[in-house]
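re: that chain from earlier
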Amino acid sequence: MGCGCVAQHQAALSAAGPRLFLHRPTDTEFVQALNADEQKDRRLLLTYFHHQHEGRFELTPQFLDLVRTRGVPHRYRWVVWRTISGWSSLYKAGAWERIAQREADPKTVDAIEKDLDRTFPNLDDFGEERKRQLADILQAFACLFPTVGYCQGMNFVAGFILLNSQSNSSEDAFFMLIQVMAKYEASLLFCDGLPLLKLYTFQFRALLEHLFPDVHRHFAREDITPELYVTKWFLTVFSQPLPFATAARLWDLIICDGLQALVHIALATIKLLRAKLLRQPTEGIMELLSLKGDTGLPSGSSIVRVALRLKKTSPCGPGIDSRLMKLRLAWARECPREAAELERASLELCTAALPVPQSHATAPSALAAYGTSPLAAALPVEPEPETPTRGFRAKVRSLRVCSSRRRSPQSSTSGAFGSTSPLLRSLPLAAEAALAAVQVDDCQVKDDDDEEEEEDNLEKAECQISGASMAIGSISPNVDPCVALEHPCEDISQER
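^ sequence. v structure.
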Protein backbone atom coordinates (compact mmCIF):
# COMPACT_ATOMS: atom_id res chain seq x y z
CA MET A 1 0.00 0.00 0.00
CA GLY A 2 1.33 3.40 -0.89
CA CYS A 3 1.17 6.61 1.02
CA GLY A 4 -1.47 9.06 -0.20
CA CYS A 5 0.70 12.11 0.54
CA VAL A 6 3.44 10.80 -1.80
CA ALA A 7 0.91 10.37 -4.63
CA GLN A 8 -0.39 13.89 -4.08
CA HIS A 9 3.18 15.28 -4.11
CA GLN A 10 4.00 13.53 -7.39
CA ALA A 11 0.75 14.83 -8.95
CA ALA A 12 1.64 18.35 -7.88
CA LEU A 13 5.09 18.03 -9.49
CA SER A 14 3.54 16.82 -12.74
CA ALA A 15 1.16 19.76 -12.81
CA ALA A 16 3.99 22.22 -12.14
CA GLY A 17 5.82 21.31 -15.34
CA PRO A 18 9.60 20.67 -15.72
CA ARG A 19 11.94 21.19 -12.79
CA LEU A 20 13.59 24.59 -12.84
CA PHE A 21 17.07 23.36 -11.90
CA LEU A 22 17.20 21.31 -15.10
CA HIS A 23 16.40 24.33 -17.24
CA ARG A 24 19.10 25.37 -19.72
CA PRO A 25 18.99 29.04 -20.70
CA THR A 26 18.38 29.80 -24.34
CA ASP A 27 20.89 31.74 -26.42
CA THR A 28 18.77 34.87 -26.02
CA GLU A 29 18.58 34.49 -22.26
CA PHE A 30 22.32 33.92 -22.05
CA VAL A 31 23.14 37.01 -24.10
CA GLN A 32 20.72 39.16 -22.12
CA ALA A 33 22.43 38.11 -18.87
CA LEU A 34 25.88 39.32 -20.08
CA ASN A 35 27.28 42.50 -18.61
CA ALA A 36 28.24 45.53 -20.71
CA ASP A 37 31.86 44.47 -21.21
CA GLU A 38 30.88 40.93 -22.17
CA GLN A 39 28.36 42.15 -24.75
CA LYS A 40 31.31 43.13 -26.98
CA ASP A 41 32.35 39.47 -27.22
CA ARG A 42 28.90 37.90 -27.16
CA ARG A 43 29.52 35.79 -30.28
CA LEU A 44 32.65 34.24 -28.78
CA LEU A 45 30.89 33.78 -25.45
CA LEU A 46 28.02 32.02 -27.21
CA THR A 47 30.51 29.67 -28.86
CA TYR A 48 31.95 28.66 -25.48
CA PHE A 49 28.46 28.50 -24.00
CA HIS A 50 27.52 25.90 -26.62
CA HIS A 51 30.78 23.99 -26.08
CA GLN A 52 30.16 23.82 -22.35
CA HIS A 53 26.56 22.69 -22.48
CA GLU A 54 27.24 20.16 -25.22
CA GLY A 55 30.13 18.68 -23.24
CA ARG A 56 32.69 19.62 -25.88
CA PHE A 57 35.47 21.01 -23.67
CA GLU A 58 37.68 18.29 -25.10
CA LEU A 59 41.23 18.28 -26.38
CA THR A 60 40.32 18.12 -30.05
CA PRO A 61 42.29 19.99 -32.73
CA GLN A 62 39.22 22.13 -33.41
CA PHE A 63 38.82 23.16 -29.77
CA LEU A 64 42.54 23.91 -29.37
CA ASP A 65 42.49 25.98 -32.53
CA LEU A 66 39.55 27.96 -31.14
CA VAL A 67 41.45 28.70 -27.92
CA ARG A 68 44.66 29.48 -29.75
CA THR A 69 43.29 31.78 -32.43
CA ARG A 70 40.29 33.45 -30.78
CA GLY A 71 41.18 33.27 -27.10
CA VAL A 72 38.98 32.45 -24.13
CA PRO A 73 36.45 34.79 -22.46
CA HIS A 74 37.28 35.47 -18.84
CA ARG A 75 34.28 33.60 -17.44
CA TYR A 76 35.40 30.38 -19.17
CA ARG A 77 39.18 30.84 -19.00
CA TRP A 78 39.87 28.94 -15.79
CA VAL A 79 37.90 25.82 -16.73
CA VAL A 80 39.46 25.83 -20.22
CA TRP A 81 42.98 26.17 -18.84
CA ARG A 82 42.35 23.34 -16.41
CA THR A 83 40.99 21.14 -19.19
CA ILE A 84 43.88 21.74 -21.59
CA SER A 85 46.63 21.51 -18.97
CA GLY A 86 45.34 18.25 -17.53
CA TRP A 87 44.84 19.79 -14.09
CA SER A 88 42.53 17.03 -12.87
CA SER A 89 45.05 14.28 -13.66
CA LEU A 90 47.47 15.65 -11.08
CA TYR A 91 44.95 16.74 -8.45
CA LYS A 92 45.03 14.67 -5.27
CA ALA A 93 42.35 15.23 -2.65
CA GLY A 94 43.85 16.18 0.69
CA ALA A 95 47.37 16.69 -0.68
CA TRP A 96 47.13 20.50 -0.49
CA GLU A 97 46.22 20.44 3.19
CA ARG A 98 49.15 18.17 4.03
CA ILE A 99 51.66 20.16 2.00
CA ALA A 100 50.44 23.52 3.33
CA GLN A 101 51.14 22.35 6.89
CA ARG A 102 54.82 21.92 6.16
CA GLU A 103 57.32 24.57 7.13
CA ALA A 104 59.53 25.91 4.35
CA ASP A 105 63.16 26.88 4.83
CA PRO A 106 63.36 30.18 6.80
CA LYS A 107 65.43 31.84 4.06
CA THR A 108 62.84 30.85 1.48
CA VAL A 109 60.03 32.21 3.65
CA ASP A 110 61.88 35.53 4.08
CA ALA A 111 62.46 35.84 0.32
CA ILE A 112 58.78 35.17 -0.40
CA GLU A 113 57.60 37.66 2.23
CA LYS A 114 59.83 40.40 0.76
CA ASP A 115 58.31 39.92 -2.69
CA LEU A 116 54.65 39.87 -1.66
CA ASP A 117 54.23 43.65 -1.69
CA ARG A 118 56.06 43.84 -5.03
CA THR A 119 53.59 41.47 -6.68
CA PHE A 120 51.00 43.33 -8.76
CA PRO A 121 51.11 46.42 -6.49
CA ASN A 122 48.78 48.40 -8.78
CA LEU A 123 46.02 45.78 -8.92
CA ASP A 124 43.16 46.39 -6.50
CA ASP A 125 42.15 42.73 -6.72
CA PHE A 126 45.50 41.68 -5.29
CA GLY A 127 44.92 42.67 -1.67
CA GLU A 128 46.18 41.29 1.61
CA GLU A 129 44.06 38.15 1.42
CA ARG A 130 45.47 37.28 -2.01
CA LYS A 131 48.99 38.00 -0.79
CA ARG A 132 48.59 35.52 2.05
CA GLN A 133 47.23 32.94 -0.39
CA LEU A 134 50.21 33.58 -2.65
CA ALA A 135 52.63 33.12 0.26
CA ASP A 136 51.02 29.78 1.15
CA ILE A 137 51.19 28.57 -2.46
CA LEU A 138 54.83 29.54 -2.96
CA GLN A 139 55.91 28.02 0.35
CA ALA A 140 54.06 24.81 -0.44
CA PHE A 141 55.73 24.61 -3.85
CA ALA A 142 59.16 25.19 -2.29
CA CYS A 143 58.49 22.34 0.15
CA LEU A 144 57.37 20.00 -2.63
CA PHE A 145 60.28 20.88 -4.96
CA PRO A 146 63.17 21.93 -2.67
CA THR A 147 65.71 21.74 -5.51
CA VAL A 148 63.84 24.60 -7.18
CA GLY A 149 62.74 26.41 -4.05
CA TYR A 150 61.80 30.00 -4.72
CA CYS A 151 63.18 32.53 -7.19
CA GLN A 152 62.05 36.03 -8.10
CA GLY A 153 59.57 35.87 -10.94
CA MET A 154 57.76 32.85 -9.53
CA ASN A 155 55.68 35.25 -7.43
CA PHE A 156 54.22 36.80 -10.59
CA VAL A 157 53.57 33.43 -12.23
CA ALA A 158 51.82 32.02 -9.16
CA GLY A 159 50.01 35.31 -8.48
CA PHE A 160 48.75 35.50 -12.06
CA ILE A 161 47.41 31.96 -11.82
CA LEU A 162 45.73 32.85 -8.53
CA LEU A 163 44.08 35.91 -10.08
CA ASN A 164 42.67 33.77 -12.90
CA SER A 165 41.33 31.04 -10.62
CA GLN A 166 37.66 31.92 -10.49
CA SER A 167 37.14 29.77 -7.40
CA ASN A 168 39.65 31.92 -5.46
CA SER A 169 40.96 28.61 -4.15
CA SER A 170 44.59 28.27 -3.08
CA GLU A 171 44.29 24.55 -3.73
CA ASP A 172 43.16 25.01 -7.35
CA ALA A 173 45.88 27.57 -8.04
CA PHE A 174 48.54 25.38 -6.41
CA PHE A 175 47.88 22.39 -8.65
CA MET A 176 47.80 24.62 -11.73
CA LEU A 177 51.16 26.04 -10.65
CA ILE A 178 52.55 22.51 -10.46
CA GLN A 179 51.30 21.83 -13.99
CA VAL A 180 52.93 25.02 -15.30
CA MET A 181 56.18 24.31 -13.47
CA ALA A 182 56.44 20.58 -14.22
CA LYS A 183 54.38 19.72 -17.30
CA TYR A 184 55.11 23.01 -19.07
CA GLU A 185 58.69 22.99 -17.71
CA ALA A 186 58.62 26.52 -16.31
CA SER A 187 60.67 25.29 -13.34
CA LEU A 188 63.64 25.14 -15.72
CA LEU A 189 63.49 28.94 -15.89
CA PHE A 190 64.18 29.12 -12.15
CA CYS A 191 66.44 26.19 -11.26
CA ASP A 192 70.17 26.67 -10.62
CA GLY A 193 71.89 28.41 -13.51
CA LEU A 194 68.62 29.43 -15.21
CA PRO A 195 69.35 27.09 -18.17
CA LEU A 196 66.06 27.47 -20.01
CA LEU A 197 66.23 31.25 -19.76
CA LYS A 198 69.68 31.12 -21.38
CA LEU A 199 68.41 28.89 -24.21
CA TYR A 200 65.39 31.08 -24.96
CA THR A 201 67.53 34.23 -24.87
CA PHE A 202 70.00 32.63 -27.30
CA GLN A 203 67.19 31.68 -29.68
CA PHE A 204 65.57 35.10 -29.43
CA ARG A 205 68.83 36.94 -30.12
CA ALA A 206 69.57 34.88 -33.24
CA LEU A 207 66.03 35.19 -34.61
CA LEU A 208 65.92 38.92 -33.88
CA GLU A 209 69.01 39.42 -36.02
CA HIS A 210 67.63 37.12 -38.74
CA LEU A 211 64.07 38.46 -38.93
CA PHE A 212 64.56 42.13 -38.00
CA PRO A 213 68.15 43.09 -38.85
CA ASP A 214 67.36 46.82 -38.75
CA VAL A 215 66.08 46.55 -35.18
CA HIS A 216 69.08 44.42 -34.23
CA ARG A 217 71.53 47.00 -35.61
CA HIS A 218 69.66 49.86 -33.92
CA PHE A 219 69.76 48.05 -30.57
CA ALA A 220 73.49 47.35 -31.03
CA ARG A 221 74.22 51.06 -31.64
CA GLU A 222 72.30 51.91 -28.46
CA ASP A 223 74.06 49.14 -26.45
CA ILE A 224 70.78 47.34 -25.74
CA THR A 225 71.11 43.57 -25.38
CA PRO A 226 68.23 41.07 -25.11
CA GLU A 227 69.14 40.34 -21.50
CA LEU A 228 68.02 43.86 -20.57
CA TYR A 229 64.38 43.22 -21.47
CA VAL A 230 63.55 39.59 -22.31
CA THR A 231 64.72 38.39 -18.88
CA LYS A 232 61.68 39.99 -17.24
CA TRP A 233 59.41 38.87 -20.08
CA PHE A 234 60.45 35.22 -19.78
CA LEU A 235 60.87 34.89 -16.00
CA THR A 236 57.40 36.28 -15.37
CA VAL A 237 55.92 34.50 -18.43
CA PHE A 238 54.72 37.95 -19.58
CA SER A 239 52.47 38.25 -16.52
CA GLN A 240 54.24 41.22 -14.91
CA PRO A 241 54.91 43.86 -17.57
CA LEU A 242 51.63 43.60 -19.50
CA PRO A 243 48.10 44.62 -18.53
CA PHE A 244 46.12 41.74 -17.03
CA ALA A 245 43.79 41.14 -20.00
CA THR A 246 46.66 41.23 -22.49
CA ALA A 247 48.74 38.79 -20.46
CA ALA A 248 45.77 36.44 -20.08
CA ARG A 249 45.33 36.33 -23.87
CA LEU A 250 49.00 35.43 -24.29
CA TRP A 251 48.62 32.67 -21.73
CA ASP A 252 45.82 31.17 -23.83
CA LEU A 253 48.47 30.53 -26.48
CA ILE A 254 51.05 29.29 -23.96
CA ILE A 255 48.59 26.85 -22.39
CA CYS A 256 47.91 25.43 -25.87
CA ASP A 257 51.42 25.39 -27.35
CA GLY A 258 53.74 25.17 -24.38
CA LEU A 259 56.42 27.45 -22.97
CA GLN A 260 58.32 27.65 -26.27
CA ALA A 261 55.61 30.10 -27.33
CA LEU A 262 57.46 32.69 -25.20
CA VAL A 263 59.99 33.13 -28.01
CA HIS A 264 57.22 33.52 -30.60
CA ILE A 265 55.46 36.09 -28.43
CA ALA A 266 58.65 38.06 -27.81
CA LEU A 267 59.41 38.26 -31.54
CA ALA A 268 55.81 39.23 -32.32
CA THR A 269 56.04 42.05 -29.78
CA ILE A 270 59.19 43.39 -31.43
CA LYS A 271 57.53 43.20 -34.85
CA LEU A 272 54.51 45.18 -33.70
CA LEU A 273 56.67 47.82 -31.98
CA ARG A 274 59.26 47.91 -34.77
CA ALA A 275 58.42 51.29 -36.26
CA LYS A 276 58.37 53.00 -32.87
CA LEU A 277 61.58 51.30 -31.70
CA LEU A 278 63.55 52.45 -34.74
CA ARG A 279 62.70 56.10 -33.99
CA GLN A 280 63.71 56.04 -30.33
CA PRO A 281 67.01 56.57 -28.50
CA THR A 282 68.08 54.33 -25.63
CA GLU A 283 65.66 55.73 -23.04
CA GLY A 284 62.70 55.59 -25.39
CA ILE A 285 63.52 52.04 -26.44
CA MET A 286 63.69 50.81 -22.85
CA GLU A 287 60.42 52.59 -22.07
CA LEU A 288 58.69 50.81 -24.96
CA LEU A 289 60.20 47.46 -24.03
CA SER A 290 58.97 47.83 -20.46
CA LEU A 291 55.52 47.07 -21.95
CA LYS A 292 53.71 49.41 -19.62
CA GLY A 293 50.08 50.15 -20.36
CA ASP A 294 50.69 53.83 -21.17
CA THR A 295 53.16 53.14 -24.03
CA GLY A 296 50.55 52.38 -26.70
CA LEU A 297 50.91 48.63 -26.55
CA PRO A 298 49.27 46.33 -29.10
CA SER A 299 46.45 44.15 -27.84
CA GLY A 300 46.95 40.57 -26.75
CA SER A 301 45.01 39.31 -29.76
CA SER A 302 47.28 41.27 -32.11
CA ILE A 303 50.40 39.82 -30.51
CA VAL A 304 49.01 36.27 -30.74
CA ARG A 305 48.04 36.71 -34.41
CA VAL A 306 51.54 37.85 -35.33
CA ALA A 307 53.12 35.09 -33.23
CA LEU A 308 51.08 32.44 -35.02
CA ARG A 309 51.94 33.98 -38.38
CA LEU A 310 55.67 33.94 -37.54
CA LYS A 311 55.34 30.34 -36.46
CA LYS A 312 53.96 29.33 -39.86
CA THR A 313 55.93 31.66 -42.10
CA SER A 314 58.51 34.42 -41.69
CA PRO A 315 59.67 37.28 -43.95
CA CYS A 316 62.75 35.23 -44.82
CA GLY A 317 61.06 31.95 -45.70
CA PRO A 318 59.44 29.11 -43.70
CA GLY A 319 58.23 29.51 -40.13
CA ILE A 320 60.61 29.83 -37.23
CA ASP A 321 59.87 26.48 -35.58
CA SER A 322 62.40 24.65 -37.73
CA ARG A 323 65.02 27.29 -36.94
CA LEU A 324 64.31 26.96 -33.22
CA MET A 325 65.46 23.34 -33.27
CA LYS A 326 68.63 24.23 -35.19
CA LEU A 327 69.34 27.04 -32.76
CA ARG A 328 68.80 24.67 -29.86
CA LEU A 329 71.47 22.36 -31.22
CA ALA A 330 73.77 25.31 -31.98
CA TRP A 331 73.39 26.48 -28.38
CA ALA A 332 74.22 22.98 -27.17
CA ARG A 333 77.44 23.03 -29.18
CA GLU A 334 78.43 26.48 -27.93
CA CYS A 335 77.38 25.91 -24.32
CA PRO A 336 77.65 22.15 -23.70
CA ARG A 337 77.74 22.45 -19.93
CA GLU A 338 74.57 24.56 -19.74
CA ALA A 339 72.86 22.30 -22.29
CA ALA A 340 73.67 19.16 -20.32
CA GLU A 341 72.43 20.84 -17.13
CA LEU A 342 69.17 21.77 -18.84
CA GLU A 343 68.57 18.21 -19.99
CA ARG A 344 69.38 16.82 -16.57
CA ALA A 345 67.15 19.33 -14.81
CA SER A 346 64.32 18.58 -17.27
CA LEU A 347 64.48 14.86 -16.50
CA GLU A 348 64.70 15.40 -12.75
CA LEU A 349 62.20 18.21 -12.21
CA CYS A 350 59.69 17.78 -15.01
CA THR A 351 59.48 14.14 -16.00
CA ALA A 352 61.67 11.59 -14.26
CA ALA A 353 64.91 11.35 -12.32
CA LEU A 354 68.31 12.13 -13.83
CA PRO A 355 69.99 8.81 -14.68
CA VAL A 356 68.72 6.27 -17.19
CA PRO A 357 69.00 2.83 -15.57
CA GLN A 358 71.52 0.56 -17.30
CA SER A 359 69.06 -2.33 -17.29
CA HIS A 360 66.58 -0.25 -19.31
CA ALA A 361 69.05 1.26 -21.77
CA THR A 362 68.66 -1.36 -24.49
CA ALA A 363 64.93 -2.01 -24.29
CA PRO A 364 63.08 -0.50 -27.30
CA SER A 365 60.14 0.51 -25.13
CA ALA A 366 62.52 2.25 -22.73
CA LEU A 367 64.20 4.14 -25.56
CA ALA A 368 60.81 5.29 -26.83
CA ALA A 369 59.80 6.30 -23.34
CA TYR A 370 62.92 8.29 -22.59
CA GLY A 371 62.73 10.15 -25.86
CA THR A 372 65.32 10.56 -28.60
CA SER A 373 66.47 14.14 -28.21
CA PRO A 374 70.04 14.73 -29.43
CA LEU A 375 71.20 15.96 -26.07
CA ALA A 376 69.59 13.07 -24.21
CA ALA A 377 71.44 10.65 -26.47
CA ALA A 378 74.71 12.46 -25.80
CA LEU A 379 74.40 12.27 -22.01
CA PRO A 380 76.29 9.42 -20.31
CA VAL A 381 74.20 6.45 -19.26
CA GLU A 382 74.65 5.92 -15.56
CA PRO A 383 74.31 2.56 -13.81
CA GLU A 384 71.08 1.84 -12.03
CA PRO A 385 71.48 2.76 -8.36
CA GLU A 386 71.10 0.08 -5.72
CA THR A 387 67.76 0.43 -3.98
CA PRO A 388 67.29 -0.69 -0.37
CA THR A 389 64.82 -3.54 -0.01
CA ARG A 390 62.94 -1.80 2.77
CA GLY A 391 61.73 1.74 3.23
CA PHE A 392 58.84 3.49 1.55
CA ARG A 393 60.88 6.62 0.82
CA ALA A 394 63.50 4.52 -0.98
CA LYS A 395 60.72 3.03 -3.11
CA VAL A 396 59.54 6.51 -4.06
CA ARG A 397 63.07 7.40 -5.14
CA SER A 398 63.21 4.18 -7.14
CA LEU A 399 59.97 5.10 -8.90
CA ARG A 400 61.38 8.49 -9.85
CA VAL A 401 64.45 6.78 -11.34
CA CYS A 402 62.56 4.08 -13.22
CA SER A 403 59.66 6.22 -14.40
CA SER A 404 60.21 8.15 -17.58
CA ARG A 405 58.72 10.48 -20.13
CA ARG A 406 56.39 8.84 -22.70
CA ARG A 407 56.29 10.62 -26.02
CA SER A 408 53.49 10.47 -28.51
CA PRO A 409 54.33 9.20 -32.02
CA GLN A 410 52.80 12.47 -33.25
CA SER A 411 55.45 14.46 -31.41
CA SER A 412 57.38 17.19 -33.12
CA THR A 413 60.26 19.20 -31.72
CA SER A 414 59.20 22.04 -29.50
CA GLY A 415 59.85 21.88 -25.81
CA ALA A 416 62.97 21.95 -23.71
CA PHE A 417 64.69 19.22 -25.75
CA GLY A 418 62.71 16.88 -27.94
CA SER A 419 59.32 17.30 -26.29
CA THR A 420 56.30 18.71 -28.01
CA SER A 421 53.18 20.52 -26.90
CA PRO A 422 52.37 19.53 -23.31
CA LEU A 423 49.10 18.08 -24.55
CA LEU A 424 51.00 15.22 -26.19
CA ARG A 425 53.07 14.42 -23.12
CA SER A 426 52.36 12.20 -20.17
CA LEU A 427 51.73 13.40 -16.67
CA PRO A 428 55.03 14.62 -15.16
CA LEU A 429 55.91 11.69 -12.96
CA ALA A 430 58.41 13.68 -10.93
CA ALA A 431 55.51 15.77 -9.62
CA GLU A 432 53.51 12.58 -9.02
CA ALA A 433 56.37 11.09 -7.02
CA ALA A 434 56.77 14.31 -5.05
CA LEU A 435 53.08 14.21 -4.14
CA ALA A 436 53.47 10.55 -3.17
CA ALA A 437 56.34 11.54 -0.87
CA VAL A 438 53.91 13.80 1.01
CA GLN A 439 51.96 10.71 2.00
CA VAL A 440 55.22 9.12 3.14
CA ASP A 441 55.84 11.87 5.66
CA ASP A 442 52.31 11.49 6.98
CA CYS A 443 52.95 7.80 7.60
CA GLN A 444 56.17 8.51 9.52
CA VAL A 445 54.63 10.75 12.20
CA LYS A 446 52.49 8.05 13.79
CA ASP A 447 52.94 7.05 17.43
CA ASP A 448 54.89 3.97 18.46
CA ASP A 449 51.63 2.38 19.62
CA ASP A 450 50.54 2.17 15.96
CA GLU A 451 53.74 0.48 14.80
CA GLU A 452 52.03 -2.73 13.72
CA GLU A 453 49.39 -0.86 11.71
CA GLU A 454 52.11 1.33 10.17
CA GLU A 455 54.01 -1.75 8.96
CA ASP A 456 50.88 -2.99 7.19
CA ASN A 457 50.38 0.39 5.51
CA LEU A 458 54.00 0.51 4.38
CA GLU A 459 53.79 -2.97 2.88
CA LYS A 460 50.68 -1.96 0.92
CA ALA A 461 52.35 1.25 -0.25
CA GLU A 462 55.49 -0.63 -1.33
CA CYS A 463 53.31 -3.03 -3.30
CA GLN A 464 51.62 -0.09 -5.06
CA ILE A 465 54.92 1.59 -5.95
CA SER A 466 56.38 -1.72 -7.17
CA GLY A 467 53.36 -2.37 -9.35
CA ALA A 468 53.45 1.13 -10.81
CA SER A 469 57.20 0.85 -11.52
CA MET A 470 56.77 -2.39 -13.46
CA ALA A 471 53.79 -1.09 -15.40
CA ILE A 472 55.11 2.35 -16.25
CA GLY A 473 57.05 1.17 -19.30
CA SER A 474 54.05 -0.42 -20.96
CA ILE A 475 51.37 2.24 -20.57
CA SER A 476 48.89 2.32 -23.40
CA PRO A 477 48.82 5.66 -25.28
CA ASN A 478 45.14 5.95 -24.31
CA VAL A 479 45.74 5.46 -20.58
CA ASP A 480 46.86 8.27 -18.28
CA PRO A 481 50.10 7.36 -16.41
CA CYS A 482 48.55 8.33 -13.09
CA VAL A 483 46.29 5.26 -13.40
CA ALA A 484 49.37 3.17 -12.68
CA LEU A 485 49.83 4.99 -9.41
CA GLU A 486 46.19 4.91 -8.35
CA HIS A 487 45.32 1.35 -9.48
CA PRO A 488 48.64 -0.56 -9.76
CA CYS A 489 47.04 -4.00 -9.53
CA GLU A 490 44.79 -3.46 -12.54
CA ASP A 491 45.77 -4.19 -16.12
CA ILE A 492 46.61 -0.65 -17.23
CA SER A 493 47.42 -1.79 -20.74
CA GLN A 494 43.67 -1.87 -21.38
CA GLU A 495 41.90 1.31 -22.35
CA ARG A 496 39.83 2.93 -19.64
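The longest strand covers residues 313-314.
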